[in-house]
Amino acid sequence: MKTFSILVLFFSFSLAAQVSTLPLWPEDEMPNKQKSDEKEDINQDDITWITKVQKPTLEVYLPPKASANGQAVLVCPGGGYAGLAYDWEGTEIAKYLNSKGIAAGVLKYRLPGSASVKESFKAPLQDAQRGIRILRANALDWNIDKNKVGVMGFSAGGHLASTLGTHYQEAFYSAIDSTDSEEIRPDFMVLVYPVISMDSKITHQGSHDNLLGKKPTAALEKQFSNELQVTENTPPVFLIHAGDDDVVPVENSLRMYTSLREHEVPTEMHIYPKGGHGFSLANEIYYLQSWSDRLTDWLRNLN
Predict the structure, then answer these.
(1) What is d(CA 115, CA 121) in angstroms, rounded to the nearest whole number?
(2) pLDDT tens digit sequence for 249-263
């Protein structure tokens, strides 16, 4: 625990460094862990693809103090709960957010199929809860307003982000240090072509099976169908999807939007006719790349 605290303290006072990577958990205190011979795999081809995560981290990107607006975002890359599109839907997003004065922490979270995880479906959420707490715990040193810390997720990372925003009533792990006194409820959610539901009619089956198993109980499917977990206290949401997405059906976002509206949760949604799945910032699709401008407008309006 002492080693972890020193690492965080060192980074907090390292003013010259705008990017640094922190361990999520103190050594030997990671919850839901079991011993295995599994090794983390990082494949750097067209994108950086990470599987079998063994040491979850938070890669923190800070804008210059002069441009920081106090907002921070926990970024959850997608990958069907089988891997992480770490740069495509992670570090590239963090750089974009920094350009708008927003701090970002890219979450390298454990995957439910890892041999090093005891209870599959708990591991990603445990890491996300810890990640948002680390952002808040370091708010003063990182020029963050604790009341302006949100979460952003892509595809299966969108499911994780929406789970963080709808399952904040309790932590999925026992507190281990002072960081765990921080709130786990995000102040806003940004969900990009997200998996939302575990309903077989509209879910992404790979994400469903990887997270819950091929034959989960009906109760577990309901618990992680996040459109069914919305309440009037769910944080505001920004939704983006393409109507021709043939991987994660647009009905995921439509159902979430409907539920949010029914509970009078402030919500903005943009459905583009084309774009498919996994377009990230859509820099090569001229009519779609402006979605990030809509997001910037929405985030500024939150302030």
Answers:
(1) 13
(2) 999 999 999 999 999
Angle between helices 122-137 and 156-166 (to 10 degrees): 70
* Closest by CA position to 177, among listed 30, 56, 12: 30
Spatial separation of the C-alpha atoms in residues 248 and 102, rounded to whole Å: 28
The answer to whether 147 and 141 are in contact (CB under 8 A) is no
> Into how many domains does the chain fold?
1
pLDDT at 134 (0 to 100) = 98
- Could you tell me the residue range of the domain that residue 163 belongs to? 2-302
Mean pLDDT within 216-233: 97
Give the C-alpha distances (Å, rounded to integers) separating 159 from 97, 141, 164, 224, 273: 20, 30, 9, 9, 22
Tell me what pLDDT residue 284 has: 86
Per residue, the 3-state secondary structure of 26-78, as one string, reads CCCCCCCECCCCCCCEEEECCCEEEECCCCCEEEEECCCCCCCCCCEEEEECC
Query: Does the pLDDT at position 147 exceed 90?
Result: yes
DSSP assignments along the chain, one per residue: -HHHHHHHHHHHT-TT-SEEEEESS-TT--TTB-------EEEESSSEEEES-SS-EEEEE---TTT--S-EEEEE--STTT-EETIIIIIHHHHHHHHTT-EEEEEEPPPTT-TTBSSTTHHHHHHHHHHHHHHHHTTTTTT--GGGEEEEEETHHHHHHHHHHH-TTS-SS---SGGGGS--S-S-EEEES------TTTS-HHHHHHHH-SS--HHHHHHT-GGGS--TTSPPEEEEEETT-SSS-THHHHHHHHHHHHTT--EEEEEESS--S--TT-TT-TTTTTHHHHHHHHHHHH-
CATH number of the domain to which 226 belongs: 3.40.50.1820
